[in-house]
Amino acid sequence: MPLKPSQIHEILNTKRDDFVSFNQETWHQLQLYQAVLEKLDPREESELRQRLDALPAECGARLLEPLDKATRGVISCHLVWQSREQSLAWVRQRLTGITTFAVDGSQIYPGKDLSLPIALVQVGWFENPHLPTGEYEKDICLDVMTPSDLQVGNSGEPVDRRVNMRRFQMEIERLIDYIKAHARAQDCLVFLDGSLVATFAEAFEAKSRQFYIECLLDLLKTSRQYRVPLVAYIDTSYAQDLTTMLQQLFELPESQSLHDAQLLNKFMEWGDRTPLFLCQRSGILSDYEDERHQIAFTYLKANRDSYPARLEMPLWMYEAGLLERVLDWVRGEVIIGGGYPYVIETADQVAVLKAEDRQAFFKILQEWAEQMDLNLRFSRKMVSKIRRR
User: Fold this and answer.
1) Which of 1, 263, 356, 364 has a CA between 20 and 30 Å from the CA of residue 108?
2) 0.85 exceeded by the pTM?
3) Distance between terminal CA atoms of the chain?
């Protein structure tokens, strides 16, 4: 049955006070934190750094860049155009001959339509040299996961998680292969769609958590070893690294609902960014070994109608003097994509598995199983769908 709007409205009205209370508390905390940002004075940077040095190691963030170019914690880019044609001309100046690369993945999970658990994982990538000739590369690779791959019978780990882990592994491996093939090519930029800090994995058991950490450590180490710029792009971030830092620096009330992007948004115009910070988040970073203090981040206003995006990168890029150049490349990709990096968006389109792909996979699987004389049974519903297509 369809939703009943009247019931939803009734429940929302009943719980209105909860939403109002949450909004009021968050708004009050936001005013306190933004007031601190408004009072940040570059002339007091030396004292600020001394106070930061006195904080515990896991203080959220530590300032890397000087504050002399920042106002209220934001560095203005002063990029204003009268038309899209003017902005695209700027992009051509910055990105022509610069190769951008991104990977994304998709999957078909095991389901009740098959008598055996089988999954399909596909990753797709997009490489754009940004040349006047318009050439590019799109391609995919895939993997079929067997009951053994899915570790069926291991009650400690959901089967779907094994699929997600394989997809993540394949995405990271493709990025690593690309970096190795373009060693020391500082005219290219590799994008990771997601964070370099695997906080999401803290909810998993130790084995799964360590799996994600090792994948990201391999990526970080490869970027540093082969000197290929890498940017992790988080379009919607709820990270609280800066709010944690400010809370400890200025003894503000702790906030569970306030996040960095929300705090900064008021002070940012399109293209603006924060100074670069070193990520000093508590939790999973303590397991990052030599990479624990090697992840830097900034916030970039990539869309006028949304909160700023979070950009993470290996610290070596800042130390090598690549920061401003790389940030302009990211801005260029965002302009082409209309508010989101075009290279990531296109990789997603390449990788996605649609309904017809699912049916084609099951049809191939059915034919192959019959040829191999395997006892692979499909549900009547699935057989009917395969025959109709």
Assistant:
1) 1
2) yes
3) 28
